Structure to design on (1064 residues):
């Protein structure tokens, strides 16, 4: 049906505008609630209707909790290598036993293959290893604040070890490593995006607000950076990081390298918004009222853009996560003993190890699920960010 | 002398099936169009006048659908054996909207002048390409013949140097020229009925007058019937000979243009005409406006759709029963309980 | 149109300058000069190099001079077509790259083709059948496709092919053709293998492109010119293909500009996993062995390929959309 202009009697628009003034009525009240609600409320109302995005948000919340206190979810120290338990297969958790919540896993039995001299593990259904919630295990630090030794799920007997997602070629527990990798991979994505947002808002805002030659220079720079193939560039840069650097320094350097190209997308978004908002009536009004530039930018333009920036940043995080995975997978990103999803996937780099231990591919599933949820969430936020459309 | 109508819309209903509910955009609309007659369809935004036009062409898009009523049309050129009734009418409401029969009527028999001339041409195809396409869809001519017809049409609607415009893109033309080009496209196959959907809304007043004059002269030359959809009563007074006033998907009043303007019967028509400024009103007085606003489509009031805003609202009658369209005087019909008391016994 | 292309071409020298500086930075980046590490490596592997040779190399690369002069020397050599010699492979870099360039570019172009050929029909179907079950299915698949890193796909495919079908999908040639000269048999053998990396690389882009196509087409389908074309009596499928699809594809053309660099990026990792004889694995190896002149040369090549991609997409866009042609000239 489209938007039609209101009935215009010949002679004047003013008359028609008067005719369009609504009477206070029941539906007018609903409409009023809609028109006077603050922007964030409108965004939330619309977002709430996007069920898939809500579900993704819930999953991501869970992943974030894991990332915040990985020690609680781990079953053992992620870097502890047990040379007698190489390539142990997945010991799946059974939550219920006889209709009651009594989690257990089946034990494994190893036999040495006489030909290849390799240990070959088999799940042994005769052997039930009972697990218990909130047992005491190895001590870990919670957010660097205090030490704790409670864990979500541990074998009842302290001497037994279980490997919920199997072990790798050095006999390290993959579940515990995955949990710690979550912390690193998620946080790298977040930190890199924060850096990108900072650069993007700064340069995009400057470009959009001032226009002219400043805009031209920044736009050309963005074009040049965006026309580069990102991975070779990142690889060249990360390869240049000295081998002697500590894990923390490499971590920080990689976030900087990732955001070096990442900011361009956000800057474009911010600039586009700035350009359209600059012409909006409320900005013009603020300028005519004598507001200073800084006040216009920080009090009027930026708050209006906030929801867009959040949506764009949410969509930028998965890109960062995937790129870190790429780099670490190739051995150019984080280096052991640091653990990230990419570092874990390095173990599955060739056919032999995958055939021998398919469970080494599981960290990839973590990447896919997280990235998927972030994309769905970001799309939901972006759709909700335009509440009046 | 009354001619036989070429189009007779009877109790047309077009509903939109949305997740939130059903919007009854057109809810029982009836009127007739005779050959060579200009029928004005007026009403506020959202009253369903555009949807009525689209329903006749059967180009209402999902979730909208023609759900009831008849659109009886007497084809002048094409013959549709399957669906043709004894009296020569075809019920367009019964045809498959995407089917061959309906497509042979669209463009050839009934053409559309759309609301937005700017956006109604594809920006990446030349005007000529789109004109030739329209011509070759319904006429067995080759590319070159079609081109000559297209140039002829452009000349007829007063486009200067048509050979150049033929190769131009729509965004290279001025607003007035673009509107003329759209009219040329609508006239490409000499339709018997033209549906002009707010053809002058998007252009400025001077150009508007030129376009109206053009349409009127074209209409007279070809004895073409026009359904002129607009919200502008002034335009209606200039072009139409018969007026249909719509409110919330219903026809509230219809009649010859003089009767509607000089002796409006329905309170809504009266209120509309009151809100026109007149030379005789004393200076600095307020222009009377219709109180209230159009209800939300999901909140359609029961009974007479206009009763919440009506000055002569009769509690117990107008909000209970829906009035029907009945003759008042001569060719003038209205649907109001003030004119035809409600049947008792409810 | 011509003016537009010329304007684009004028930007090239500037871009090339920036890229050459960057490539040179890559060469310079590792601590110490590369010659020292080269000598150390040779010494470690037991071969020695006489002082005269070292001095000659030092002279050639201007290692004792300021960085700016080293850069100028390097660029002049590059402009003459001399990309240096790989210390790791002991062969001229240009020759090394040339061998692998054709395969790299073919894989990228075929992926692009695959992406378009699959994504556009999906996008059209989804948009014209919005909210149908197939549309939902494609939407879900698109999300999964975007979220899956290409190397994961390669790994899983490799594993499944080996475990359940007993075939190896690595490499681009059967063993008997690996080192054979080009012949019809070798080309056919290549075609038998090349679809695996092409499809793996194309999946992510296909998902992205199908989503853009669907959104664009949905926007276009709501525009008045569609209604006008329908009112003319045009058959529905002809109408959709002739007008809105045509307009919805236009913005996609500009995605080639950023998509080609992405494919080169992705192909680098996939090629490493699948062990393909393309530039990617060679680049990775050059970075790890610090064969910096080769790495620098490859960076330069990647950048040039990316610029060519952008240029092609710009020209295609101007060719396809008269509005852009007008605006720019």
């Amino acid at each position: 049906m489209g938007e039609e202009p209101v009935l215009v009697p010949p002679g004047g628009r003013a008359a028609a505008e008067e005719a369009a003034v609504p009477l206070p009525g029941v539906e007018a009240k609903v409409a009023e609630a809609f028109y006077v609600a603050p922007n964030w409320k409108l965004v939330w109302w619309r977002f709430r209707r996007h069920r898939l995005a809500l579900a993704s948000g819930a999953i991501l919340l869970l992943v974030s909790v894991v990332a915040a206190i990985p020690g609680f979810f781990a079953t053992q120290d992620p870097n502890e290598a047990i040379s007698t338990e190489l390539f142990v297969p997945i010991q799946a958790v059974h939550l219920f036993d006889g209709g009651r919540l009594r989690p257990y896993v089946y034990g494994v039995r190893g036999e040495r293959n006489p030909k290849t001299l390799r240990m070959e593990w088999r799940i042994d259904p005769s052997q039930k290893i009972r697990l218990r919630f909130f047992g005491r295990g190895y001590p870990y630090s919670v957010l660097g604040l205090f030490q704790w030794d409670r864990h979500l799920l541990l074998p009842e007997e302290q001497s037994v070890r279980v490997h919920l997602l199997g072990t790798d070629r050095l006999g390290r527990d993959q579940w515990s490593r995955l949990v710690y990798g979550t912390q690193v991979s998620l946080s790298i994505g977040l930190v890199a995006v924060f850096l990108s947002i900072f650069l993007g808002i700064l340069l995009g805002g400057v470009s959009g607000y001032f226009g002219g030659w400043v805009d031209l220079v920044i736009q050309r720079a963005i074009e040049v950076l965006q026309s580069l193939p990102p991975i070779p560039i990142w690889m060249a840069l990360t390869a240049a990081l000295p081998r002697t650097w500590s894990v923390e320094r490499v971590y920080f350097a990689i976030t900087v390298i990732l955001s070096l190209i990442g900011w361009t997308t956000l800057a474009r978004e911010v600039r586009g918004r700035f350009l359209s908002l600059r012409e909006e009536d409320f900005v013009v009004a603020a300028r005519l009222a004598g507001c200073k530039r800084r006040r216009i930018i920080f009090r009027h333009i930026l708050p209006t853009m906030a929801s867009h920036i959040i949506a764009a940043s949410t969509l930028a995080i998965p890109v960062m996560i995937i790129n870190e995975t790429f780099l670490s997978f190739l051995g150019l990103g984080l280096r052991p003993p640091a653990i990230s999803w990419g570092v874990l996937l390095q173990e599955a780099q060739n056919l032999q190890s995958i055939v021998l231990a398919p469970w080494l591919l599981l960290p990839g599933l973590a990447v896919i699920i997280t990235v998927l949820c972030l994309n769905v969430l970001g799309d939901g936020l972006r759709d909700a960010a335009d509440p009046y459309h | 002398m009354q001619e036989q109508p070429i189009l007779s819309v009877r109790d047309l209903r077009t509903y939109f099936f949305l997740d939130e509910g059903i919007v009854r955009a057109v809810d029982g609309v009836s009127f007739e169009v005779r050959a060579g007659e200009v029928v004005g369809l007026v009403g506020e935004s959202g009253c369903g006048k555009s949807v009525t036009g689209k329903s006749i062409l059967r180009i209402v898009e999902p979730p909208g659908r023609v759900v009831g009523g008849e659109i009886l049309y007497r084809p002048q050129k094409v013959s549709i054996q399957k669906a043709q009734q004894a009296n020569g009418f075809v019920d367009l409401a019964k045809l498959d909207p995407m089917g061959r029969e309906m497509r042979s009527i669209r463009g050839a028999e009934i053409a559309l002048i759309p609301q937005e001339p700017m956006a109604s041409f594809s920006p990446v195809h030349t005007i000529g390409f789109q004109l030739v396409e329209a011509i070759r869809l319904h006429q067995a001519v080759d590319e070159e013949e079609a081109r000559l017809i297209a140039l002829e049409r452009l000349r007829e609607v007063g486009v200067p140097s048509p050979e150049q415009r033929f190769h131009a893109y729509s965004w290279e033309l001025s607003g007035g020229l673009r509107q003329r080009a759209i009219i040329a496209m609508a006239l490409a196959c000499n339709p018997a009925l033209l549906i002009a959907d707010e053809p002058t809304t998007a252009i400025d007043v001077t150009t508007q007058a030129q376009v109206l004059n053009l349409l009127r002269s074209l209409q007279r030359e070809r004895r073409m019937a026009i359904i002129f959809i607009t919200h502008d009563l002034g335009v209606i007074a200039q072009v139409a000979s018969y007026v249909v006033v719509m409110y919330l998907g219903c026809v509230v009043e219809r009649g010859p243009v003089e009767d509607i303007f000089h002796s409006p019967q329905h309170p809504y028509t009266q209120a509309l005409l009151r809100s026109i400024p007149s030379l005789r009103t004393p200076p600095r007085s307020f222009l009377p406006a219709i109180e209230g606003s159009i209800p939300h489509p999901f909140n359609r009031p029961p009974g007479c759709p206009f009763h919440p805003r009506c000055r002569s609202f009769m509690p117990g009658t107008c909000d209970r029963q829906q009035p029907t369209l009945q003759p008042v005087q001569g060719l003038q019909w209205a649907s109001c309980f003030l004119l035809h008391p409600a049947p008792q016994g409810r | 149109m011509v003016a537009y292309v010329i304007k684009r071409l004028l930007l090239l020298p500037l871009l090339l300058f920036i890229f050459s500086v960057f490539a040179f930075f890559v060469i310079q980046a590792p601590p110490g000069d590369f010659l020292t590490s080269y000598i150390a490596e040779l010494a470690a592997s037991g071969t020695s190099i006489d002082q005269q040779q070292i001095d000659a190399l030092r002279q050639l690369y201007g290692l004792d001079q300021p960085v700016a002069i080293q850069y100028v020397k390097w660029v002049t050599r590059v402009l003459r077509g001399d990309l240096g010699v790989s210390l790791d492979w002991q062969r001229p870099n240009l020759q090394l790259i040339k061998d692998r360039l054709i395969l790299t570019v073919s894989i990228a172009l075929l992926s692009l083709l695959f992406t378009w050929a699959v994504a556009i029909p999906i996008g059209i179907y989804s948009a014209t059948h919005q909210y149908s079950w197939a549309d939902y299915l494609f939407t879900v698949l698109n999300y999964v496709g975007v979220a899956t890193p290409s190397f994961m796909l390669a790994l899983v495919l490799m594993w499944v092919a080996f475990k359940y079908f007993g075939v190896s999908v690595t490499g681009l040639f059967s063993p008997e053709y690996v080192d054979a000269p080009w012949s019809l048999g070798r080309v056919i053998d290549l075609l038998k293998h090349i679809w695996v990396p092409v499809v793996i690389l194309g999946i992510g882009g296909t998902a992205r492109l199908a989503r853009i196509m669907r959104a664009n087409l949905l926007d276009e389908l709501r525009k008045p010119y569609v209604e006008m074309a329908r009112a003319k009596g045009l058959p529905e499928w002809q109408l959709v293909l002739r007008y809105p699809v045509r307009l919805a594809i236009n913005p996609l053309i500009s995605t080639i500009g950023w998509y080609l660099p992405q494919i080169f990026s992705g192909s680098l990792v996939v090629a490493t996993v699948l062990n393909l004889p393309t530039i990617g694995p060679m680049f990775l190896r050059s970075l790890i062995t610090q064969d910096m002149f080769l790495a620098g040369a490859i960076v330069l090549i990647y950048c040039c390929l990316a610029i060519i991609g952008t240029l092609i997409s710009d020209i295609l866009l101007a060719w396809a959309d008269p509005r852009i042609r007008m605006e720019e000239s």
About this structure: The CA atoms of residues 15 and 24 of chain B lie 5 Å apart. The mean pLDDT of chain B is 84. The first helix of chain B runs from residue 49 to 57.
